[in-house]
């Protein structure tokens, strides 16, 4: 099958739109607690104004859209539900347990995760529902965390789990109950180690709002958005392909790989084009063509050489 190669991502400069947040201090909890109060004197400056080259020369989706148009079914099914219903989620204290086929299993406290070398990453974000955004994340490479636990030779996959707190997440109980909890996701180990795969702890220069997956979530920009599991509490190295929530729920609609691919339609809609949120015209002229691997083919296509990309959707 033919793989269209999109123009290379501008690898030189942080986009002008993002100057404001790379200049701004990204504030990290010096002591536990009060993460939501970023900006108070209790926080220490941590963002290394790094220029990794991972940016896109496209207009950033406005912050208000990034933080109010969300998918986070633990808080309801509507796009506005996560922002409206996530006020009670407590992102501190928080730990992420990393275990399984590793030499040094460890439970990381949030302070330790926020002390990882943080970077600005402006990424395209493409939801399987055919809308997209351009989002300025703050995060660190997932590979940096994996290095700390020393994966064993037989580790082939990485499994992720979202927190289960029905008392703070109304979609996990009662009327709004929708998916099986916890939300789970997975990557092949080589995908997880790809430099584009990050754990995000911030967006728009601030700690993550609850609706975006506070305090820490996965971002894999060449895959559909549902792979970007939010509010992670557990990461497990394994030798078997891990379950993923949408794949369990509708295996004929959502695959394990879920690489953005305009040539493989969802059974109920086309994936050939997308609506960039805030540019309007979901069905109209403003739709833009969807790029293979969401525009990251040059970086990641090699991960899948020899695989049938139509079958491994
Ligand atoms: N735990 C959890 N993670 C999740 C989801 C969810 O419902 N629960 N939704 C996914 C989907 S479908 C998308 S498109 C992205 C949306 O991320 P955003 O709201 O920050 O744009 O989160 C993903 N991560
Ligand atoms: Mo999505």
Automatic annotation (TrEMBL):
Cofactor(s) the protein needs: Mo-molybdopterin
Note on cofactor: Binds 1 Mo-molybdopterin (Mo-MPT) cofactor per subunit.
Domain Oxidoreductase molybdopterin-binding, first and last residues per copy: 89-246
Record-listed Mo-molybdopterin binding positions: 70, 73-74, 127, 162, 212, 217, 228-230
Single Gene Ontology MF annotation: oxidoreductase activity, acting on a sulfur group of donors, quinone or similar compound as acceptor
Gene3D superfamilies, per the entry: Oxidoreductase, molybdopterin-binding domain
Domain of life, per lineage: Bacteria
EC number(s) recorded for this UniProt protein: 1.8.5.-
UniProt keyword terms in alphabetical order: Metal-binding, Molybdenum, Oxidoreductase, Periplasm, Signal
Record-level GO BP terms: protein repair
NCBIfam families noted in UniProt: PRK05363.1
Function, as annotated: Part of the MsrPQ system that repairs oxidized periplasmic proteins containing methionine sulfoxide residues (Met-O), using respiratory chain electrons. Thus protects these proteins from oxidative-stress damage caused by reactive species of oxygen and chlorine generated by the host defense mechanisms. MsrPQ is essential for the maintenance of envelope integrity under bleach stress, rescuing a wide series of structurally unrelated periplasmic proteins from methionine oxidation.
Protein name listed in UniProt: Protein-methionine-sulfoxide reductase catalytic subunit MsrP
Gene source species: Shinella kummerowiae
